Structures are given as C-alpha cells and as structure tokens.
Amino acid sequence: MPKRLLDHDDTASLGVSLNTDGKSLNNVGKLLTALRSGKDRNATRSAVIALERWFSERLCLGDLRGAAADADDAQKKYSEWFAKHYKIFTKRLCAVVAGETASDGKDANEENGDVDVDDAKTRVLAFAAAMECARSEHPGRLNNELYAAVLTAAVCGRSFGEELLGALASRYLIKTDVRFHTYAVVQRLAAAKPESTVVSRADLARNLYDVLSRTPAVFDDYAPSSATAAAKESADANPDEDGEDFEAMLGLMKGTHGETRRLGSDADDANDANPFGSAWCAGRAVGEIAGAEDAEEQNKKQKRSASKKPPKKRSAVSVAAERARAESRKTRDKWADGKRHRRSFQEAWLALLRQPFPSDVYRKVLLGLHKRVVPHMPNPVLLSDFFVRSIDRGGLDGMLALNGLFTLMTKHGLEYPRFYDRLYNLLDESAFHVSNRKGFFELLDIFLKSTALPAYLAAAFAKRLARLALAAPPAGAMTCVAFVHNLLRRHPGCAVLVHRGEDCSTVFHTDPFLENEPDPKKCDALKSSLWEMATLRDAHYFPQVTKLARTIAEKDLSDRVKTAELPVGEVCAANYASLLAEELGARVKTAATAYHRGGVAGLFRTPLMKACFPEENFSWTVDAVDA
What we know:
By secondary structure, the protein is mostly helical. The chain folds into 4 domains: 8-282, no CATH class; 361-416, no CATH class; 433-502 and 511-574, no CATH class; 599-627, no CATH class. It is built from 28 helices and no strands. The protein has helices spanning 8-20, 26-37, 41-61, 73-97, 117-136, 144-156, 162-172, 176-190, 201-213, 224-236, 246-249, 286-305, 316-328, 338-353, 359-372, 384-393, 395-411, 419-426, 437-447, 455-469, 474-490, 496-499, 531-539, 543-554, 568-572, 576-585, 607-612, 622-626. The longest helix is centred in the first third of the chain and has 25 residues, at 73-97.
C-alpha cells in the first residue's frame, strides 16, 4: 500500500513542531518529501516556509561550518547530517523554482502548457527561501554559488514568468551584491553550449534579456532612491488579484502571528546613502529575525513572572550572526568595487548580444541599448560591431541601430567608414510604415545637417527621397519634400537639380538617376533633375503636399537669409489621423458648389482604374446616387 502524501495540515503541524521542539529533527526528512512530490502546492509552500526558517536559523548559528576539532562524535554526526539534508533542501528548492518535480525531472506544467498562478507563487516562495539561505550560511556574505544555481534554474526552466521576474527585480536586483553576481550568471549562461540548457537558445536569450533589462544600472555614481522607487512602482503595479497577502507569505513563520516581514527593506539597510551599502547579505536573515522574536517573547514572559526587572537576554542566533558580519567586514568584497562592477556589467551585455534573439527581443534591445547600457560601459565602442551588424540587416532593425551608432560616433569618438552609404541604403518604402519612423527621420535630419557634405552625396539623398515621395503616403511625401527643401537650401551646388532644363538645352529621354544603385557615388544624381517635385506639385491628390512642393520652385533656396528650413520633426510626426483631424478642423472660407448635372464620369481616368472598377459594377451617375 503506497504511503499517503502529506497535505497542508500535515506539513503545517510538522513545521510548527520542528521550529518549537528541538527534538523533532526527523520532521526535516518528512517535510523534504513534500518538496519532492510537488502535488499539493499548499503543502509545498508550508514545507518551504518551515524549512526556510529552520535551516536559516541554524545556518546563522554556524552549523554548516562543521563541528569544532574537539567536538564529540554526536556533534560530528549531526554536522554531517545537517550538511546532507541542507544540500537536499537547496537542490529541491532549485527544482521547484525550475518548475520540475525532483522525482521525474519533468516540467510540472508540461501537460497542459498553462502556468498556474498558484504554482507561480510556489516558485517565488522557493526562490525567496534559497535567497535567505544564501545569506544565512555566513551572515555578511552572499553564497554566490547557491544564488547562481537558483537563478540558473529560474531562467533555464520552462515556466519562467512575470511573477518570478517581478519578485527578482523588486526584492533582489536592487541589491548591489545580487546585481554583481547576476552579471556573472548571465555571462556564463550566454556562453554555455546549446545542449547544456533545457530551453531553446532563443527562449534562454529572451529570459536573460528580461533579467538584464530589469537590473538597475547603478554603480558608484548612483542615487539610491531612484532604484528603490522604481522597484516599488513595479511592485505596486501588480497587486495580488485574489486578495492574498503573498508578500507576507514570503516571510511567514509559525509563531509570528502572521506579521509581515518585507524582504529587501530590513532595518540594517539604513546606510543606503552609500552607493554600495545596500547589499542583500547585509540584511538580517529569516532565522536571525525568528531567533530575535523568540528571545523577545522569553524576555516578556520573564518580566511578567519576575518580581524584579530581569536583564534582557539576546538570542544566540543574533549574537552568532553579528559576530560573522563583523568578521566579513574585515575584507572588501569584489562586488563593492565600482570599476569591477562596471566591467561585469559590460561583459554580461556583450555575452548576451552574441546570442541569437527573436525579432521582437532584438528590437527591444536596439531601442534601449543607447540609453540604458552605453552610458554605463567602460568601453562602449565594443558595441560597434553589434550596431553595424544590425544596420546590415536593414529595415526596422537598421533604423533602430542608428541611435546607438550615432551615440558612439558623437560621444565616444567612433570612426565609422562608409556610414552615409549604409544610411543611403536604409531609405526605402518601409521607412514610412514603421512605428519608429519619427525617430529615424529625426536622426536622418541630424546626419544631413552638415554643410560639409559633398554635393554628390546631398544630391543622392535628395533624389532618393524625391523618388520615394511618389509612392509614399501623404505624411511620408510631406516628409520627403521637407528633406529635399532643406537639402537644396544647405547645399547650393544641388540647385542644378531644380534649374536644369530651364533654357530647354537639356532634354531627358530617360532619367540618368540609377535608383537601384547602392553606392551614392555611382547613382548619377547630379546628372538628373528633381522632376518628381514638379509631379507632386501638379498632380498629387493631397493639397498640403502640392503646397510644400510649390515652395521649392517658387523660392530661391540659395538665399539663406530670406528662406528658412522646414521643421522635419513636426512633419514626420504626421499620420493619416492627424492629417484628417487637421482638415476637418480647418475653417473654410469658400466651398465648392459645382454640380455635375450629367454625372461624374470618373475619379482617376486611367486604364488601370477602369479595369479595377468596371462600369457595370460601379456607376457614378447622378441617378444612381439618388436611387
């Protein structure tokens, strides 16, 4: 007959007995079975809470550091037993965090493919227990190996979700020592062989990016309140929907009457004025807090029963923990070195950027790299290869990479040959339909502002933009016309594109401009003319485009005193909605009253339109409209 699995009541009773009766050591093995089965999530959480307190309290006392040389056999056997069960406990915590059962090694959610909210909370609780143990082994120091193991289990598991990521970002990544070791874990996992991870390389890259992007980039020039405030806003944005105080569960211990202990906001963190004073290992662990509470309860009982005021007794756990912290302060930790911290930050990002990303993550990286990563790197020029590869991809990826490359060129002295050739090739029809087109065209305007550009290059961009304007949407055509207007004003040598043929001495049978030539030197733009502007001026259906195009022919753009540049930033921000709202909101002084008594024969009289809208199906006569 199989053994009955422990339920929530069983684990709760075993946990209370374990933490109140020093002779109930056998309950440790029973509670570990609840972590192994993983069937009842309530029982698993209760077992995690009980074992977290018990192991943390004894770790602070130094039980893991081994028995003294003069200890008897019983103490040595206890030390061996404790080390063995502690190793099992941490291993099974990692299995819970990864979403696996230790017995079969399979994903707990593999069958239905859904992430249970209850199961996600169990993972968060197991992660918190591992973090408590990591700072309890030697108070004042963080066991980076245990932290690396539990973080690896989290990001390599198939159930890494927003709940675990939010807890990691709001409670732990705001701590300096945790951030330092996080960079080392990311660097190691990014360089790991594909077969050494459970998830695919793309999913692993996504998870690692989520962790790095949520890690505050704060170093020795850090204002501590910014990261803490950001973390609190992130935590407040996702309250528990079912009303359960899950934050309290993270520190819930039997005997504390449900008091809430908020991790990451310990009283020992009052030295946050020091940029590297906010460390996870500097705070008090669960076992130390529980031991202090028990000592306080004993002092209260003695005070009520004694006739005289007895002296307060301190908890043995607190005394041992403070002694260990004092010892750890004698040496300077690596994570407290600002320069080393920045180097780890840089190496983690460089290792991550060498990995294959999904398209959506790749674009998220490009959007924030120049703001959140480049300013904090010791040598930002190392990112130049990544930005160049992104520009070579073309399309939206190439446009987004311009931000980072521009930052490296203007602020960090990067010399990038053939930059304008690559920029020229990024200009195509897709530039008018991407979500980040405003930022792209604003950067393009900055790149083309210099009057030192050679005439052939300015003419090539003017001609390219003019050709794109013919098939662009109205907002895109207005942007192209504004660029052409400004280029002609900045570069008088390009005036030949407008005035060629005025004396009828030059007649083109074909346009000399080579539209598909990727090299602006060889596209023969200076041999051509801006006939596209005349076409837009005379035949475009949107009146604002014709109005803008008319300024190129009617004004002498070589006179920089009497002319002004068109605001490209305002024009490129337009879209169909804004243009329509502007037209509907305009005050009309006169309105057309012409009436076609014979009916409208057609809108665009071309063979193509007649083929698309045959007369037997589409009638434009007045009788048909009235009917």
